[in-house]
Each structure stands twice: as structure tokens, then as C-alpha cells.
Design brief:
single chain; alpha+beta; Rossmann fold; Dna Ligase, domain 1; D-amino Acid Aminotransferase, Chain A, domain 1; 3 domains; six-stranded antiparallel beta sheet; four-stranded antiparallel beta sheet; 9 helices; 12 strands
């Protein structure tokens, strides 16, 4: 599995080990804490944006002969989709979305267009060339079209401020700012298009990841999450994010989809959803039992920083 440098990759690797699987954990950062997990087979490969990524991954596949691959890093998905045939011929099972799904989920402008086309409520969004079309008197967010982890996100109140902030964010978009209760949905969409949804209210977010959360029930939010998954033809484990805005219309808006497990998926597991085991079933083309993805609302999770190792270790020169 890829991306063991932090949540969700590190937590998924630990969970798979507890379930009795042999785990090959890979990351592009030699300092990734998941490489220190006891019992893991740790390997370092090139970054997804490196021309060496594909060769490094396939060399690892031929050397270690893994049965399957799980991806926890969005920007690796385009490469992995291109490599799907090579991986299959090497005996590696994958559960990857189509390239169209990867593109739509990873590009906030295309995501906005897809949600509007599917009649899924989502924040109004504009390109920099459309700033003049933005209504006066609304709060705005300027962010990268293809960003993640809340990097280069700026808030403002006027079109003039948004115009300046567009110079700071790479390939930016402008969105109407939404205020309300932020939620994530841990979803598993099976090979027939049926999806189970576990809703979590994000109580504290750091670097775009939920570190304090509680499971909730909300039929309207679950309905729109399912519509969003269907609109982009998502498959496998998926993280959907949005806001519940009491007193506003629409009450629920969908803001983002990530084609991977979310950083806070352990909360869904603690609430009773058999998320990881059912993901493994789907990965190996076995039936997914959606009854085992039911969950209890009101389950609370707080994440914290843990010490992985205090032993001497050679530190690479990363300068």
C-alpha cells in the first residue's frame, strides 16, 4: 500500500497488520513514520510526479510480488490508472476508479461542473477570468484547482481581494464560502454501484484532516453524498466532504470527493462499520456485505501524535 507517511496510510497499514495481512508499506519520503511500523515491509519509491515513479513501482512489484495494491495518495491515482494493465499482468489486484472519475474528483472546477450537472448541491465556483460575475456581498474562498490538505487556501470578502489572492494560489478557483457544520463521509461503493455511507462531523481539522470527530445521522446528507458518488461514478473506498447549513437553502452542500479512505476512517470502524475488511473483499472481487457497514451515531474519536521510534536511525540528506 502507498502513502504510509501519515493518515490515512499509516492507520490503514496498522489495521491491515492487525487483521493478519502481510503489508508492504511504500512512501516517497524516507522519513515517513509508517516505514517504522513493526512487522511492515518498508520500501521507498519516487514521488508520483517523478518520471521514475512507474519504474520504481513496477520494480518493487516484480521483486516482492504483492497480491494487491491500495492507494492512499490522490496524486498517485493518474499514474496507477495508466499502470493498471501492467499491474494486472504482474498478478497485482487493484480497485481503481476510471480516469474520468480521477480527473473530476481531483480538479475542483470539473468537480463543480459535474455536481451542477448532476443536480448535487455544491458551493458556487468561478475561474479567475469570471471574477466580474461574482455577486457582491458574499464571503469567498480562493484555493488551488488541484490542491489538497488545505494548502494555499485563502478567505476574503470582496472580488478585489479575490483577484489579489489568485496571484498566491497555483492555478486557482474562487468559491463561495460555506459556513455550517463540516462533515466527512466514509463511503464504500461496490462494483455494482451500491454505496454505504458513514457520516462524521468534523469537530477539529488540522491540515485538512479531521483529528476530532463524532459520527452522526443525517438522511439528507447521506442522500446527497450518494448522489455525488453516483454522479462521478466513484468506486471503492471514497471520502466525501461537505457542510450542513441549518436555516440555509440548500441545507447540505457537497464540497469535495477523494478517491481513497479518509484520514479519520478509524472512527467509522469504532462505530461498527467493517470498512477495511469490506474494502479488502471488494479489492479481491468478493461480495461486499453492506449490512456490516452499518454504524452507531454518537461515537467520538480524538487523534493524537504518537512516538513511532526512539532508536538510532540513519537520517538521509534531504536538503
Amino acid at each position: 500500500m502507498t502513502g504510509v507517511g501519515g493518515a490515512p496510510g499509516l492507520d490503514l497499514a496498522l489495521t491491515l497488520l492487525k487483521l493478519g495481512h502481510e503489508v508492504i508499506g511504500i512512501d516517497s519520503n524516507p522519513l515517513a513514520p509508517g516505514l517504522l511500523i513493526p512487522g511492515i515491509t518498508a520500501r521507498i519509491i519516487a514521488r508520483a510526479d517523478s518520471p521514475l515513479f512507474a519504474a520504481d513501482l513496477m520494480e518493487l512489484v516484480h521483486d516482492l510480488k504483492p497480491d494487491a495494491l491500495l492507494c492512499c495518495v490522490e496524486n498517485e491515482l493518474p499514474q496507477l490508472v495508466h499502470l493498471r494493465g501492467h499491474l494486472q499482468r504482474a498478478g497485482v489486484r487493484t480497485w481503481l476508479p476510471d480516469m474520468a472519475t480521477v480527473t473530476t474528483a481531483g480538479d475542483k472546477w470539473e468537480f463543480y461542473r459535474a455536481m451542477r450537472g448532476g443536480r448535487v448541491p455544491t458551493p458556487a465556483t468561478w475561474l479567475p477570468a469570471q471574477i466580474g460575475e461574482i455577486p457582491e456581498g458574499i464571503e469567498l474562498v480562493v484555493k488551488p484547482r488541484r490542491g489538497q490538505g488545505s494548502k494555499n487556501v485563502h478567505f476574503c470578502h470582496t472580488r478585489e481581494q479575490a483577484r489579489v489572492l489568485c496571484e498566491l494560489a497555483p492555478d486557482p478557483i474562487i468559491q463561495q464560502r460555506v459556513r455550517g457544520r463540516e462533515f466527512s463521509a466514509d463511503c464504500l461503493a461496490d462494483h455494482n454501484g451500491r454505496a454505504s455511507v458513514v457520516l462524521r462531523r468534523r469537530l477539529m481539522v488540522q491540515a485538512g484532516m479531521s483529528v476530532v470527530a463524532v459520527t452522526i445521522d443525517d438522511a439528507e446528507a447521506a442522500k446527497h453524498v450518494t448522489e455525488a458518488l453516483r454522479t462521478i461514478r466513484a468506486t471503492g473506498p471514497v471520502d466525501v466532504q461537505g457542510f450542513i447549513t441549518e436555516g440555509a437553502d440548500p441545507r447540505v452542500v457537497i464540497t469535495e470527493i477523494n478517491s481513497r479512505l479518509a484520514a479519520g476512517f478509524l472512527l467509522s470502524e469504532e462505530a461498527g462499520a467493517n470498512l477495511v475488511e469490506q474494502t479488502v473483499n471488494g479489492l479481491f472481487r468478493q461480495a461486499i456485505d453492506h449490512r456490516r457497514l452499518a454504524y452507531r451515531s454518537g461515537t467520538f474519536l480524538t487523534k493524537y501524535v504518537a512516538v513511532m521510534s526512539t532508536q538510532p536511525r540513519a537520517v538521509p540528506d534531504t536538503a
